[in-house]
């Protein structure tokens, strides 16, 4: 028996079906055994021969093929994860209402593993109340419905409904498989994550900034999405690809981040402020480039304080039971300074790590200590930022109030 994870890739009939070929390639090349189950309409966009060649497995749309193997039951029963990509509005409706008129919809009814839908459709179709109701029904039952991306659609249209980046969908699937079966523990929750570093403009070409890459915040957003959350990512100058299933709001300065964070936090169950926010900004902004003058020293730059976003959100708590998480990058007396900051900011958790040359900023790995306002102290050993992200969400989940 193969020890490879068994992935069912369902493909429904949308133009984005051709992009699923890249997802299939990444899944097979990373050691997954993939069975592609297209709908009849999907084969108008990409033929069965292509799916079979890329997966190395037979392809069928009919429950009547190989009847002795009972494929309409067996495929779903043996799957470790089912991914429908793209998922059209029609497929979401069929899945929500339990219809079973082809091999893919039968497979969805027999699957007892995590089921992921990656929608792709025109904006009007995605925003239609019927589609939104179907998505809500699927999520309520434990299915993972990835938020579509925003961008160019078929023809000249632009808006929300674009098929997410196949690379990001692959990462999403990998994280879901890593967590195993069971209802994702952030299902039905809205979480807000900030990432990157703010930049405070001095003139049209210069700014005061920091070295934050945004990678830890993006890892937090990706892992939260894979755990079933609706995620709003406030990205400050990160320059990283938008994670699949995440609503991304791009900001530049601390003032812009504050505005976006207060707006997003209004209905959030948890707010994780992982972005490195500049403490100060130039008092004045030069509308023209500041010139270097021979024989003259540069004029001093007067600074003013930026708003303390973490403290403001911690004190405001627009939603009862909201969990607020801060980050502290320290260079010395790490735990003592972290405890002092935790008390000063008023948040529930503070993730403290040591920074410096070749430490944390821009790296793929991290280590930290998660401090709790209740006196708890949880060290996370050096490892992938994704692992730290999961430990942070574990701590958040344990503090969230029970959902009705």
TrEMBL record:
<feature type="binding site">
    <location>
        <position position="345"/>
    </location>
    <ligand>
        <name>CTP</name>
    </ligand>
</feature>
<dbReference type="InterPro" id="IPR007085">
    <property type="entry name" value="DNA/pantothenate-metab_flavo_C"/>
</dbReference>
<keyword id="KW-0285">Flavoprotein</keyword>
<dbReference type="Pfam" id="PF04127">
    <property type="entry name" value="DFP"/>
</dbReference>
<feature type="domain" description="DNA/pantothenate metabolism flavoprotein C-terminal">
    <location>
        <begin position="186"/>
        <end position="398"/>
    </location>
</feature>
<keyword id="KW-0511">Multifunctional enzyme</keyword>
<dbReference type="InterPro" id="IPR035929">
    <property type="entry name" value="CoaB-like_sf"/>
</dbReference>
<dbReference type="GO" id="GO:0015937">
    <property type="term" value="P:coenzyme A biosynthetic process"/>
</dbReference>
<comment type="pathway">
    <text>Cofactor biosynthesis; coenzyme A biosynthesis; CoA from (R)-pantothenate: step 3/5.</text>
</comment>
<comment type="similarity">
    <text>In the N-terminal section; belongs to the HFCD (homo-oligomeric flavin containing Cys decarboxylase) superfamily.</text>
</comment>
<comment type="similarity">
    <text>In the C-terminal section; belongs to the PPC synthetase family.</text>
</comment>
<keyword id="KW-0436">Ligase</keyword>
<dbReference type="InterPro" id="IPR003382">
    <property type="entry name" value="Flavoprotein"/>
</dbReference>
<keyword id="KW-0288">FMN</keyword>
<feature type="binding site">
    <location>
        <position position="279"/>
    </location>
    <ligand>
        <name>CTP</name>
    </ligand>
</feature>
<feature type="domain" description="Flavoprotein">
    <location>
        <begin position="6"/>
        <end position="174"/>
    </location>
</feature>
<comment type="function">
    <text>Catalyzes two steps in the biosynthesis of coenzyme A. In the first step cysteine is conjugated to 4'-phosphopantothenate to form 4-phosphopantothenoylcysteine, in the latter compound is decarboxylated to form 4'-phosphopantotheine.</text>
</comment>
<feature type="binding site">
    <location>
        <position position="327"/>
    </location>
    <ligand>
        <name>CTP</name>
    </ligand>
</feature>
<keyword id="KW-0210">Decarboxylase</keyword>
<dbReference type="InterPro" id="IPR036551">
    <property type="entry name" value="Flavin_trans-like"/>
</dbReference>
<comment type="pathway">
    <text>Cofactor biosynthesis; coenzyme A biosynthesis; CoA from (R)-pantothenate: step 2/5.</text>
</comment>
<keyword id="KW-0460">Magnesium</keyword>
<keyword id="KW-0456">Lyase</keyword>
<protein>
    <recommendedName>
        <fullName>Coenzyme A biosynthesis bifunctional protein CoaBC</fullName>
        <ecNumber>4.1.1.36</ecNumber>
        <ecNumber>6.3.2.5</ecNumber>
    </recommendedName>
</protein>
<feature type="binding site">
    <location>
        <position position="289"/>
    </location>
    <ligand>
        <name>CTP</name>
    </ligand>
</feature>
<dbReference type="GO" id="GO:0004633">
    <property type="term" value="F:phosphopantothenoylcysteine decarboxylase activity"/>
</dbReference>
<feature type="binding site">
    <location>
        <begin position="307"/>
        <end position="310"/>
    </location>
    <ligand>
        <name>CTP</name>
    </ligand>
</feature>
<feature type="binding site">
    <location>
        <position position="341"/>
    </location>
    <ligand>
        <name>CTP</name>
    </ligand>
</feature>
<dbReference type="InterPro" id="IPR005252">
    <property type="entry name" value="CoaBC"/>
</dbReference>
<dbReference type="GO" id="GO:0015941">
    <property type="term" value="P:pantothenate catabolic process"/>
</dbReference>
<dbReference type="GO" id="GO:0046872">
    <property type="term" value="F:metal ion binding"/>
</dbReference>
<feature type="region of interest" description="Phosphopantothenate--cysteine ligase">
    <location>
        <begin position="191"/>
        <end position="404"/>
    </location>
</feature>
<comment type="function">
    <text>Catalyzes two sequential steps in the biosynthesis of coenzyme A. In the first step cysteine is conjugated to 4'-phosphopantothenate to form 4-phosphopantothenoylcysteine. In the second step the latter compound is decarboxylated to form 4'-phosphopantotheine.</text>
</comment>
<feature type="region of interest" description="Phosphopantothenoylcysteine decarboxylase">
    <location>
        <begin position="1"/>
        <end position="190"/>
    </location>
</feature>
<dbReference type="GO" id="GO:0004632">
    <property type="term" value="F:phosphopantothenate--cysteine ligase activity"/>
</dbReference>
<dbReference type="GO" id="GO:0071513">
    <property type="term" value="C:phosphopantothenoylcysteine decarboxylase complex"/>
</dbReference>
<dbReference type="Pfam" id="PF02441">
    <property type="entry name" value="Flavoprotein"/>
</dbReference>
<keyword id="KW-0479">Metal-binding</keyword>
<dbReference type="GO" id="GO:0010181">
    <property type="term" value="F:FMN binding"/>
</dbReference>
């Amino acid at each position: 028996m193969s020890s490879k994870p068994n992935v069912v890739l369902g493909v429904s009939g949308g133009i984005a079906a051709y992009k699923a070929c890249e997802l299939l390639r990444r899944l097979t090349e990373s050691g997954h055994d993939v069975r592609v189950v297209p709908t009849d309409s999907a084969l108008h966009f990409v033929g069965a021969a292509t799916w079979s060649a890329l997966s190395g497995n037979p392809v069928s749309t009919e429950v009547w093929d190989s009847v002795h193997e009972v494929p309409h039951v067996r495929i779903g029963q043996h799957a470790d994860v089912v991914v429908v990509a793209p998922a059209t509005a029609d497929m979401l409706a069929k899945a929500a209402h339990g219809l079973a008129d082809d091999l893919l919809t039968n497979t969805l009814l027999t699957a007892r593993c995590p089921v992921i839908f990656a929608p792709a459709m025109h904006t009007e179709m995605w925003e239609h109340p019927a589609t939104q109701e179907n998505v809500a029904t699927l999520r309520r039952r434990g299915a993972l419905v990835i938020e579509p991306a925003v961008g160019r659609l078929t023809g000249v249209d632009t808006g929300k409904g674009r098929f997410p980046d196949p690379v990001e969908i692959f990462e999403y699937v990998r994280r879901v498989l890593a967590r195993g079966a069971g209802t994702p523990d952030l299902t039905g929750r809205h979480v807000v994550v900030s990432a990157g570093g703010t930049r405070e403009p001095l003139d049209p070409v210069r700014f005061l900034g920091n070295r934050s890459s945004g990678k830890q915040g993006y890892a937090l957003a990706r892992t939260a999405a894979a755990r079933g959350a609706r995620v709003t990512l406030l990205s400050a100058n990160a320059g990283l690809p938008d994670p699949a299933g995440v609503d991304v709001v791009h900001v530049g300065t601390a003032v812009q981040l504050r505005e976006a964070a207060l707006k997003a936090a209004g209905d959030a169950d948890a707010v994780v402020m992982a972005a490195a926010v500049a403490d100060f900004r130039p008092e004045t902004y030069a509308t023209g480039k500041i010139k270097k003058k021979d024989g003259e020293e540069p004029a001093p730059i007067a600074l003013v304080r930026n708003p303390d976003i973490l403290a403001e959100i911690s004190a405001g708590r627009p939603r009862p039971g909201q969990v607020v998480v801060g980050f502290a990058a320290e260079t010395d007396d790490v735990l003592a300074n972290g405890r002092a900051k935790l008390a000063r900011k008023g948040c529930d958790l503070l993730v403290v790590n040591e920074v410096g040359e070749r430490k944390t900023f821009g790296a793929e790995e991290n280590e930290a200590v998660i401090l709790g306002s209740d006196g708890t102290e949880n060290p996370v050993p050096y490892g992938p930022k994704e692992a730290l992200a999961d430990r942070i969400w574990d701590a958040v989940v344990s503090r969230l109030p029970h959902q009705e």
